Amino acid sequence: MTAELGHFALILAFAISIPQIIIPMIGAHKGWNDWMRFATPAAIAQFLLVGVAFAMLTTAFVTSDFSVRLVAANSHSAKPMLYKVTGVWANHEGSMLLWITILTLFGATIAVWGRNLPPSLKARVLSVQSMVGAAFLAFILFTSNPFTRLGQPPVDGNGLNPLLQDPGLAFHPPFLYLGYVGLSMAFSFAVAALIEGKVDAAWARWVRPWTLAAWIFLTIGIGLGSWWAYYELGWGGWWFWDPVENASFMPWLMATALLHSAIVVEKRNALKSWTVLLAILAFSFSLIGTFIVRSGVITSVHAFANDPERGVFILVILAVAIGGALTLYALRATQLKSTAVFGLVSRESGLVMNNLLLSVAAAVVFVGTIWPLVAEITTGAKVSVGAPFFNIAFTPFMVVLAMILPIAAMLPWKRGDLKRTMQPLWGIAALSVALGAAVWVMQTGGRMLAPVGLTLAFWVVVGAMADVAVRVKLGKASLPESLRRSRNLPRADWGKMFSHIGFGLMIFGISAIMSWEVEDIRVAKIGDTFPLQAYEIRFDGVKGIQGPNYTAARGEFTLFKDRVEIAKLYPEKRNYPVQSMPTSEAAIDQNLLRDVYVVLGDRQNDGGWAVRSYVKPFTNWIWIGVFTLSFGGLLSITDRRYRVASAARKSTMSAVPAE
Amino acid sequence: MLKYLLLIVMLATPVMAVQPDEILADPVMEARARDISKGLRCLVCRNENIDDSNAELARDLRLLVRERLVAGDTDQEVEDFVVERYGEYVLLKPMFSLSNAMLWFAGPALLIVGGWISLVFIRRRSTGAALPEEGLTADEQAKLDALLKG
After folding, report:
1. Which of A21, A334, A627, A644 is deepest in the core (most CB within 10 A)?
2. Which domain holds residue B126?
3. Is the pLDDT of residue A299 over 90?
4. What ipTM was reported for this prediction?
């Protein structure tokens, strides 16, 4: 019954989405209020219905209803409850249902909280949002129905890929989807504004929090995925430039650019048409990402050809959405006139540089990701594009970005004076370079990655702090005065500082792990002690253990430094009998200076075991950086100017006579 | 019972990435082998280099790389040898060739075009600002010529 109910709710949601496209759009065009108002209940109903469908699928998974094909294929009765729930989105059909649930959730939030939006803009936004919704509801209903029943239900299910049975990955997809589906809001606002022919500061003030929210989720989602790869895949890799990763990274880069350009629209009423274009492109990259992940086209052209139905369907959605939006943009963008004037040296120019670097970087990732496909189609050549390419082609953009960031962030609006802005920064720049030089001397030459990385990291982190220090006149005014000023500093400025510091910390962590990792691969016998950099590791033994739905060999290691025991480490080699698939669980002793990372390998013929151990310096700073980055976003989104907007809404609400 | 479980775990486990028995005695040569391995694709895997891969084929390729190094090949010769055998597909960093020109030049080209558009845009915005002279000074021209030649 649950599956049928879910299926029925999805069909109803699709049925509602069509009038939600048409009626408010006509209403907004003709100025008919009640037609425009139709969008609000429709968007809420659409969300509730999709929510019911999602709840029904979750029920089927939780109760292990193996008469549902999807549950039988992806779940197992012995699986822990957490993974029964997360199993809902760990497959194609379920993940598309999650996608559409989040899309309609964002639509509903506009319906509920968008009371102070101009009625015509709100109607158009919801109409555009529903276009995307209808397309994906049709996709699910026609090609990827999650509620298909089996004629003869199996006794038990096939289980979930053991690699996915992990808390880090369990919550990775929802965050990621909240992020890149959240960009649909920016897209809908952009398209609505093009139809409307008007983009102003109020528009930007609406778009920016949504983009920020999407960006925060996306940042956390990507961070979770990277963290998962680090401890689960068994050698501590944290980013692979895999097409699927790139699919989430491209929208992230574009969203980051959009965040910055929306500030210019909001504060200076400039860069309007570029911001609208960015909003369209950011969501376009989300759609392209969905296509890449869902069609399998990048992994192999042949996989796509074998099951073209889904891929072609998404490709059509993609072509219509992106093509349509860009055509509309071409027709209407000239109406979006910006009046503001600013000089060559100004905050505005700095933000244009930021946008240029981020969007070209995104384009490089895009070209690299689709190149194998393009090459095969055009010349028939089979080429691979992997990490070594991206490291060379992508990194320079981030280096330049980090170089200009502290300066551009401190430039005043309209017209700046480079000399004056640089005044407090010269010292920091000199210190950064000195630090880099010291690092270079200490590692006695060698690769430039660490010296350059550390120089930039220090420059960005301290530069971001200097910005706030100058703003509060730290050291220039009395301490109480500085404190008073810092209390009055808008939260968005603190957000800016934290996010920029987060970026710097990531540069630090990434350069450190890439330059200074120490690795040891050996055969160790039980009882052996072996050195690893400044540490010693004793191999105490291996035990067989039984988990809830797996068996494992668990190695026992003791970590010593200067003959003092500092930690016990228990790496596991697990086997999940349902899928007969082995996974490796690394044991990691973490602190802020380094991770000691131990992986148990195969038993050798002579009775020893293969053991891989690493010292990964400063790795945690990558995740701390990610956290600081999103924390900055959070501060920014709770800035007074957005809260004032909502307070103003409340007061206008109470001012309306209760009829 | 537990012993039995342990046995199952061991039997079901595939070979792990770089094995202790593969490692060359000469640490410098081993480091070179690792570097080369990181740029070679495991042909049966999804976007994985042979250094990280668990596949049997990746192990064969790792051993081949080491064999060539021990035989006295340079890094480039090893790479050429592998490409000769398996095609360009094996390289994770596509060759800097005419057929890959679009891939390699996309970034720089877009940056130049985008940068130029931004500059024109900003200049148009900054009406009334003290704009620097159009064109290049003799000094800049000389630098540019040197760059183009070099």
Report:
1. A21
2. 99-149
3. no
4. 0.86
